[in-house]
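Exam prep: given the inputs below (a chain plus oxa(dethia)-CoA), describe the expected output before reading on.
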Amino acid sequence: MPEPSQPCGVRIAGTGSAVPEKVLTNHDLAEMMDTSDDWIRQRTGIGERRICSSDDEGAFELQCRAVSAALEDAGMQASDLDLIIAASVTSEMTCPSNACRVAHQIGAAPAGAFDIVAACSGFVYGLNIADSLIRSGRHRNIAVIGCDAMSKVVDYEERTVSVLFGDAAGSAILSRDDDPGKGSIYQVIEADGSSWPSLYLPRKESDVPEKASESDVRMGKLRMDGRDVYRFAVSKFKSVIEDAMNATQLSVDDVSQFICHQSNIRIIESAKEKLGLPDDKVYVNIDRYGNTSAGSVGLCLDELNKAGRLVEGETIVLVAFGGGLTWASSVWKL
Ligand code: UT7
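Solution:
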């Protein structure tokens, strides 16, 4: 184990992702409920999403596939890992954590393993935590996995929520690097619990807020006040990116990619417009996958990596917000 006092940086050694095979198109949804391809595309930018199609598929299976792909990309074995951080709101069980089961399944034991629950911000929360743990000198190789199997908690009788979400996992292997300039050079992990009723997953009647407008709340199914979350997201995306740029004194020209949680194309477009971000610097795949909650930023990261668009020495900005309400950013030197 390296000396904790020895300064070091963090590099992204590899990335991976996984999505279910089953495609659920807007046209499929229009056959299930009162909606249309036009409405969904115009209001969200989504054309289709992937969803788990059997009980055997779920967060655990997607997490195993994504982290295995990331290890392969890094040219590493599972036994090289000393920690696995899995971010999800759809882990099969709360005990044990999915991270423990993933570690066992891929052969990473005795690597430490824990889950974090930060909804759509989970992957960026995880990256920031992993960066800090590696810089502390106590860990050398950490797998971060952001994953959600939202189809398991979406009520397909409720049209506002169900059209938005899909299932996916994205993973990054973070490794200690001798260059202290590499890794997260600025990061934010924040939350405002007062607004939790805007987005929640009730397990029992008493979880439902008194003022809930919904009369048909179903236990185990996601509830969302879309307009509230939309307003929060539009202002938060802008302020979080502005804060990150001001704190690091970087300009848009200094950043090669802004990797934003794929929540709704209108939320991403609003941030682009307000901050003057060019199209080619804001990655978008929501048209193909929908909003995959904790999976989305890692999935984008992996697609950019596979396209050769994560270039050593360049700077990327990762931003996410979600249930909690939570938000997180990381300015990352590759
Ligand atoms: O990842 C973090 C968590 N979530 C988010 O980021 C979501 C943020 N919010 C949103 O993306 C948007 O609020 C939604 C996509 C969820 C909804 O879009 P909206 O433009 O805010 O629609 P709305 O809720 O204001 O509804 C407008 C109309 C309503 O009809 P009336 O009352 O105007 O007659 C809805 O009943 O659209 C109706 N509507 C639909 N119509 C067809 C709502 N959902 C649908 C639908 N198809 N799927």
